[in-house]
Specification:
heterodimer; A: alpha+beta; four-stranded antiparallel β-sheet; about 20% helix; B: about 250 residues; alpha/beta; Rossmann fold; 6 helices; globular
Chain lengths: ~100, ~250
Amino acid sequence: MCTMIAHQVKIEGRGKSGPDWFEVREANVSYDHPYDLPLEHALNIDFVNEALGPGARVAVELSVEGARQLVKTIQAVLAQADQRGVLEDIPVVAAPAPRPTPA
Amino acid sequence: MYQTDQYEGMIAETVSMRGHNGDSINAYVARPLGSGPFPGMVVIHHAPGWDEWYRECTRRFAHHGYVAISPNLYFRDGHGTPEDVGAKVRAAGGAPDARVLGDLDGANAWLRSVPYVTRKVGIFGTCSGGRQAFLAGCRLKGLDAVVDCWGGRVVQSKEELTQAQPVAPIDYTKDLSCPVLGLFGNEDKSPTPEQVDQHEAELKKHGKQYEFHRYDGAGHGFFYYDRAAYRQDQAMDGWKKVWAFLERTLR
């Protein structure tokens, strides 16, 4: 990409792409050309799982203002949850493998 | 310009070719029917990926009488939709220059190995591909023309250099071995008009053959009809400049 401004952070979570959820392990954050948003550059976040291949990806492309508001909102929500004593700041325990559907 | 009563046809398909380190990668080739021989063009896809626009662009070169090959520079980054693979490369800070040059050299060698290509081969790229086209013109042997469309980061500050892209292409200008056509939008942020000025000054300093055209009312990617950046007047004029330049340098 033309700015090459990109950072990766390891995260724990789940993402939904199509009908199925998958385990998200990385978030790739870049300020570079978006694919769909009609701007030259955007704040792009790809929630991915590199071990599952390029298709395991949930993408968002945000305007600068949208990205700033999102950051503030996430911080505000986490602060509010902390204040109310409901913040579960613990690692995600790996879920057991799904059982095969009975025939 | 082709005539309405002339016969016309082309073949377009994916092929395998040898790239950097002798790796086998895939490429999209489009060529006019017939034995030719036709001049060759290496078509470098842009940063968003080896996508439909680049398939069409490759066929466009064939339509204008060139054997065009567009190597998949992201072959080693996995397979999926062009967007998903492109996003992966974006997150990694782009494809490494050494690997890209190896793949472009392989594409040139592929063109020179087939009987329907003349001894003349040019290279075309947009966005990161414009930068890579200029880099190839400086670092590779056997190229006869470079078309750099809004190649960002030809001029790079020391802070922008990375392990994958360790040298700013402008620093190789003295080694440029063929004429360059550059097309730029004056509203572009990468490259900015000031960076294009620096690039031009360096070409002048080293006495290189170049032709730069800068368009008002256009920013980055003004050829891309599938993006908001498309500027019809500027794009059509830019294509005319491309065909005229290649006619002079490759035929």
